[in-house]
Every structure is written in structure tokens, then in C-alpha cells.
Amino acid sequence: MKLTLNYDELTNCMRCGFCQPSCPTFKETGLEAASPRGRIALMKAVVDGVMEPDDSFSRQMDLCLGCRACEPVCPADVKYGQLLEQTRDAIEDHAEHSWWVKGLRSLTFRHMFPHQKRMRLLGSGLRLYQRSGAAKLVRSAGVMKLFPETMRQMERILPEASGDGVVDRLGTFYPAKGTAVAKVGLFRGCIMDVLFTETNVNTAKLLAEAGFDVVIPDTQNCCGALHAHSGELDQARDLARRNIRAFREAGVDYIISNAGGCGALLVEYHHLLHEDPVMAEEARWFAERVKDITQVILERGHVPALTERLREGRPSGDQTETVITYQDSCHLRNVMKAGNAPRNLMSRIPGVRFRELQGADRCCGSAGIYNLVQPEMSMQVLDHKMEHVKETEAQYLLTSNPGCLLQMKLGIEREGLAGRMEAVHLVDFLYERMKPQPVGETEAALPGPGSTSAGQTAPRSEK
Ligand code: SF4
Ligand code: SF4
Q1: Is CATH 1.10.260.40 the classification given to domain 7-93?
Q2: Which residues surround ligand 2 with Cβ inside 6 Å?
């Protein structure tokens, strides 16, 4: 840890404690050691040689959700997320895993996630399992009882895998409707493309409706977030280099993410590769161009035209009002700083009443694979979240990250709200409510880009 951790960053923490109220694990436990200030103090104690990085130390680092809600509230601008990544990397370098954990980590991090074709194969296998009746058979035979409760619940709420990906559906180029305002590269993700293929397809189509030429480089791979958060920084760097090359060759103006968890690492590639003499500059080029889909639409897209399409998409004579609410993706809000853009777009959907979710900025407990490795704390955080979700009485619970989406589906299932409430990705909700522009029609007939005060409209909300 002495070699890995940034000591200046550790000493930046002035122990004010402003971060404590924003931390979900501190809220749940009340323990200083489970708070950002406490964890930074523990890291510094190890680096100073005052304490050993023993099991209790590792447990506190593992218990951290990595949600980074402690960063925007910190007056000293302590880069907690980077300290956590560096700590986990150092711990992992010396971890003594059992043979099966080693095997599982190697299979996941080295042999599956970095290879999109293998991920697609996994998707095809999952699809076969779900469609062939094997899933029902496994459940009725009680096989799932061998697994922990969270995994059993997860298995039930998993969306149907498509067995293909966005490139299989649309090719590597999807043209703008009308004159293009910019050329964007769609970051398709690994899990995202296997389990939420339709959302990726809708993302490309929504971007095209907003006036963007969409390129989907087929040589891109997993963003590396799972690796970076699990102490596998070298592998995360390799993945980053491959992605930078793929999008650099595509010559795009922006790199667009529809998953807060991926976007937050993409936007920090320059930090990940700052010591790489060959790629540091390229990484900065890449990071400067990363945006969430909602940000790029509001900043550069044909917003009035899109709003018009949303208005036309509403069936005539429909006077009903749909109540929606929104759970922030922590990384989209705290790292990509895009908390307002999704709310701005939601405010433009006709026939929709937006109710702000109390504590929407607090992590839902998904946090990558946290809900699988720390199920107890994850479910504690989720159950508290769902108390506020119920208060909104919303019909749709929208979010912008696949992990959050699955966790929200799990929360709905656990609370018995299925049938009354549905968790949906914001992109799908927007695209499905639009009347797409017919091919051949240009934006000239519609209000042009830039004629909106992007990012400034407050959503029609109820507390
Ligand atoms: S808010 Fe920042 S400076 Fe204050 S205790 Fe937390 S991390 Fe340290
Ligand atoms: S990343 Fe989240 S869980 Fe971890 S210390 Fe910061 S606020 Fe707490």
C-alpha cells in the first residue's frame, strides 16, 4: 500500500466529517470505520505502519459500496474513489484465495469479460436456459435452493438474454435522421449488450432521432470497471487501451454511454493511464469525449424535434397521467456529474408526472457485484430505499444503469410491488414513448438544434 497509495491524497483529508451523512454504510452501521473518513484514516494508518492490513481492515474496504457519494460533498476534494481502487489493488496483490476463488476470478476477469464473443456465447446459453424450460425445471427441482437467497432472487428477475448484440441488430453504423450534428461512438458495454440488447438498440435509435450519426466500433470491449473495483487494475488498463484504440480509429466526436457504472470509468481513463508513456495523451483525448446519452442530447441534439416526437407519440385523446420516479446511478451523478440531464429529459415527456424519490442520490446497494458478494448490507440498503420508492406511488421507476435496474427490479419483487410498478431504463422509456421520425424526413421541417436552453429546464416535480 505504501507503493500504491497516493499519500498526498490521504493527507488531503482534514477529518471534517462532512462526508459522513452521505455514506450509506455509515448510515446503516453508525461505525466510524465504515465511513469515508474512517476508511481514509485506516488506509493512512496502514501506510504509516501504525496498523497491519489485516482481515478486519480488508472487511471495511470490502464493505464500501464504491458509490462515491462522499466525493461531491468533500470540501477538500479528496479523491476517495481513487484511494479505494489503489487500496483494493494492493490488497489483491497479496490476497491468499482458495483454489476455487482463484479459478472463478481468472475465469471472470481474464477469460470472459474481456472477450465480447464469449460474452455473447454466454448470452446464448442463458437464453437457451431461459427459453427451453430448463429454468423452470431447475426451480421446481429445488436446485436453486443450493444457492444463497439473493442469487435465487436475482435468477428470477434476470431479463431474457437476447443471444446477440447491438451490432448484430444494427450493424456498426446507424445514420442520423436528417443532417447530422455530430458523429458519436456508442459504448455498448459487456453485460449491457448481452442482457439489455434492446436498450442498446434504443440508445442508438434515440441518438439518431436526436441528430447524431452513430458508430458502434465492433473492436471495443468491456470498460474494465469490474476489474478496477475488484483490485485488477492492470487488466482494467489493458481493456482501457483497447477501447481507446477502437474509438480513436472510428474518429468520433463523442463517446456515449448509457450505463453510469461504465461511463464513470470511461470518463476517468486519463487517470487510469496517467503513468502510461504511450497512452496517457490518447486517454485524455478519450476521457474528454465521454458523455452520458442524456448529456449529449441536451448539449448538441435536436431537442425541440425530439420533444415534438414525444408529443406525437402520445395517443390522441389520452388524458391519463403516468407517475414516474427516478433512482440516480451513483456513478452517473457523483462521477459523471450528470444528475440533472436525465431529469431534464424526463420533464419533456407529455402525460407524465415526475415525483422525486427521497434519497434518490443514495446508492441502491447494487454497486457492480456488491449485491452478490455483500448480500446482507446490499439488501439492508435496498430495503430502506424501497420504503421511499413506495411513498412515490409511481408506476415506473426509471434508472440509467443496468446494475441499478436489476436491483430496482429485485426491490419491487421483494416488496410485492410487481404488477403495480415497473423498473425501466430511462432510454427505453423515452424511446418507446416517441413517434420515430420517418426515414427521409429532415430536421429542416422540425425545430433545429441549439434552440433550447439545454440542461436548464427543471422537471415538473412533486416532493
Ligand atoms: S469530507 Fe473530505 S476532508 Fe472531510 S472527512 Fe470526508 S473525506 Fe476527509
Ligand atoms: S464510496 Fe460510498 S460507501 Fe464508500 S465510503 Fe464513500 S459514500 Fe461510503
Answers
A1: no
A2: 22-25, 36, 39, 64-70, 80
